[in-house]
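Deviations from the work plan: none for this task. Representative record:
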Amino acid sequence: MYIYSILVISMFVALLLLLLTGLPIPFVLAGVAMFFSLIGYLCDLYLGTMTGINFTTIGMLVNRLYALMANWTYVAIPMFIFMGIMLEKSKMAEKMMVSVHKLFGKIHGGLAVTVTIIGILLAASTGIVGASVVLLGIMTIPTMIKEKYYPPFAAGTVCASGTLGILIPPSIMLVAMADQLAISVGDLFMGALIPGIILGGLYITYILIYCRIKPEVAPLSANIEPLSWSVIFEAFKSIIPLMGLILLVLGTIFAGICTATEASALGALGAIFLAWINKKLSFAMLKNVVIETFSIMGYVFAIFIFADAFALILRMLGGDEVIGGFLLGLPFGPYGILFFIMLMVFFLGFFLDWMQITFIILPILASAVSNLSYPLVKGYGVIDQPVLIWFTILVAICLQTSFLTPPVGFSLFYLKGVCPPSVSLKDIFKGIIPFVFIQLIGLAIIIIWPNLVTWLPAVAYGVK
Amino acid sequence: MDANKLNNNVILKYFAYIDKLVLTLGETFSWLNFFVLITIILQLILTHFFGKGYIFIDELEWHFYAIAFLLGLSYTEVKDRNIRIDVFSQKFSTQTKEKIDIFGNIFLILPYVIIVFIHGIDFAHEAWIIGETSGSPMGLPYRWFIKSFIPIGMFFLGISVISRTIKSIVFLTRNSNYKDSHRGA
């Protein structure tokens, strides 16, 4: 067992070190996988291990790749990407921003609340951390700076709201996680909805309280018209199309009318329709969206494919037994082990994005967790694997927290890339800290009350 | 030596064609995702309004999707859009970055591409020999067709990686005004 442990640990160390050289992530995954399959082969020859790796068995890589190709669930991913980009190019978000801002214009921090709401709605459709943070940053940071918002506060709000999108369904991260753990995408979407809304609610509560205590961080706009019925009407009119689209996608899944894949195509079609209503649809624009979807799909699937190869070699080197055995051997009890896993995911999230976590680590962690009993988690007799659904949501929230945590969180750097030079990285770090604490509170809430995750799927299955 | 002269360089010109080919191919095949969208909607209409779905349409959906992501690999590589963690590497000089890239291309990605290419040909060839069809009675007939996109995808990824490596080497040996121009095609 000793050699296997060394192999597994050195494989991770090699991965982390090579990632820091700035080489493309998929290349590093592929290279480490190939190098360690060679090492495994040599260990079999000279050190008496039994990894079974040789040139023939490595052909399994092709079968794994084919399994990804023939995976009908993953067809949803390009569809959701298409939907997100189509919505972005239809410029609906800009319209929403103006009219919703008017609605909250009389409150300190109203603009920040607007940004959070739009961030949640928009990011829900894209689900790629970088993409949603960048989009939201480009769209809202200049306005907030113009309105003399305190830069750290503005940056923190944008970063946290954009990152929340990976949790709020329909998110492609949840699609991939569900498939890797063989649980239903619909169950996971439903499980994520209430935690996502709770986190969004906590963000808004924090923004309002902070701005009440320190109104100078979020000055009121000079020329805001008084709140009237027409303002309220306009705000709702601008928000309803997008809200309706998301409800259509989630509703058809939750009601069991459509699979996640079918619903994703409906969402994409709906986004085309909204762009048409907004008079932005043209052949050139459609072509643009199609090419951009293809490009994003390219880099997302590059990571999927090569992380899958990495996971295969890790498994052949005994990664499941080494990591699983280590976790289950910890003398902490189920909740202690859960805490340890969360800590692990949190630190890994500094270096690995959700795609690698989902393919490489999540299946191992989940199989360890399913050996433990968590009596608080109720399946109401109708949910398959309630513990796994709850656990996956916890991992998702934990990862999201990790992406926000200075000094290495992914989201922070994506945001820095699109901020005007007047907003420094230090501002972003400073502004994000309260949100990291909110995330931890959210995580604790979901650990203490797992029903917040399992209740909605149970209701959907007809439990009163 | 100025950029113009370098562009006339035979090798570079040759690889510029390869890049162009991959990009054109990618832009053409990017429409596959749109076809996926249409086929899913078509199937939805057929099952919900006419009470009759077709298995071959289901299979077409993932065929389109699979071809799209396999060809997407090379497109993303030529466009240099693969995600990198550049927190540390930002501070490296262009020279160092190029050297790291050459190392990564040759020792990290090419071994995978070659191995999966070889095994992928076997995989598709086997499906061809046994005349493998879809497991379902109404499914698509030719499994070798979709399976052969594994070696095809690897081939295009391979030549894109080689093209980039050659350009990096040319950059390092000439080391002149030929600045970052080959990055991000």
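Chain A touches chain B through 64 residues (CB under 8 Å).
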